[in-house]
Please model this.
Amino acid sequence: MECMLQHHELSAAVRAAIVAAQAAQTLPPFEVPDPVVERPRDATYGDYATAIALQLARPARMAPLKIAEAIAAHIVSPHYLGEINVVPPGFINFRLADEWVQALPARILEADAEFGRIDIGHEGQSAQVECVSANPTGPITLGRTRGGVIGDTLHRVLEAVGYNVTMEYYYNDAGRQITLLGESVKVRYLQQLGRRAKLLDEHYQGDYIIDLAKELIAEHADALVDMPTDAFAEYARDRISQQQKATLARIGIFFDVYFREQSLYESGAVDHTLEALRENGYIYEKDGAQWFRSTDFGDEKDRVVVKADGEPTYRLPDIAYHWDKAQRGFDLVVDIFGPDHHATAPQVLMGVRALGYDSDFVHTLLHQIVNLVRGGEQFKMSTRRGLFVTLDELVDEVGADAIRYFMISRSANSPVDFDLDLAVERSDKNPVYYIQNAHVRCAGIFRKWAEAGLAENADEDADLSLLTHERELAFLRKTLELGDVLEMIATTYEPHRLAFYAYDLAALFHPVYEECRVLHSEVPEPVRLARLRFYRAAKVVFARVLALMGMSAPDVM
RNA sequence: GCCCCCGUAGCUCAAUUGGACAGAGCGUCGGCCUUCUAAGCCGAAUGUUGCAGGUUCGAGCCCUGCCGGGGGCACCA
Model:
């Protein structure tokens, strides 16, 4: 089920009211803007509000309160609306009709797993989310994990608003890093066989290199001693890539496309990109290198794209890759990078523009780092020294759900302090349990219900108007906000909003569970059935929200 | 030196993109288990939004300048 959001409908209704008031000459003529209708922070003001009258004070040259009254008098109220209030200094507040809120469980159950799906004009559009994009030279780190979880959550949200989403992973499968990887494995291989070989500073230090060497010995014994490092590199690259894929799958992240940098060389796209840039007049030679005139696009200095030794820098294939994205015609591309790429992202987009494309379809999402906290203290990681916690270890320790949640529990602009103790704590202090427990509690009611031998669909024709408890209604109002949250995320690319929403929703649920009993003898039968309907809907909403976050919705914990 | 991010309650962070009295969690204090899981609920206290100006009917949010913290500034990726 797809639906239009209430705030858009109200915005249109307010706009129409302004036009009508002008026709009735209770408002003077002026250009009518699209009124912003939003949820007020303080729910006591109502469910929706607009400050349009305050904004119109100048063009209308009237007191805001008078404007608000003139508008309110002409609003054609949608069926779901209760009262409309005009409040000083000029806000117009809207309240949803209680009867309509009470009926929400029916809508939720009808929508089921599609609940929250909205049509905001992206239906059928294509989007690409590029994230993780780690080179196959080592285990997935926590920084990449954060990008992955942000990306995958975004992927789920973008689908909920109608996009066809491609999850894409770009990696460098050749070049110096891979050569070093091959050398590292060969050194470890020789060492394991008791031969003389020395690991250099620039080599990969992690124990996983030794593991790979051991694998090779198990399979080939010492038969590879005279093999070139290329063979080791190829083996390590493929194995690590495979392991990365398997690890990401453990936290529910899957990619549709693995894009190899090398393929851009094989297809000639890199050369082609350089030539196209040259034809457009953005390439010149200096000191034996080829330079991209990025200053034409606001860069502080021009950038080398082909080094004096004839090798391209990473920028050229990066630009070629984004040219490819442009040519594939995505309506939206979201590139997700960690703090180490903050400086380079704009240069790539300059390249895209130099090739004649508008780069507005690309949104670059930069996120901050992940710190690990144990026992209340932060510990620093270092990839070079092999001192890091891998995603695999983290999954073993705290599970996928906690990782998914905490990675989006902060705005991308803030660092995440991942508290390992909190992540496994089984209490209301741990938001993961707190949220999932809401779903567990709903499931528990239906389990008890079934155990009592009661009819499974007894609540089908329940009288929902019996849902009169203040807390029941507050919860139902909150479920309606899911669509707004998804719209906001799809507009701002800020998936942390989903984590906050899920928590807020749970915080409104638990008091209902405490106060609005179902199976107890003192609850009258019609109320019992209405509440059963309520909890059935609540269960659907929590399942949906957890699914959007890529988390499990357990029936028992 | 230049660029990016951050600075909000004791701590960690939100704040619907410029709206109403700046909100949550943790921590602190006080209540609640013969009731569908207390893995929970109810209540209380807590602010010069780093500083100084500016724009606006209205600023945590926008502009300018400072101060402080983090990250980045390769013919590495």
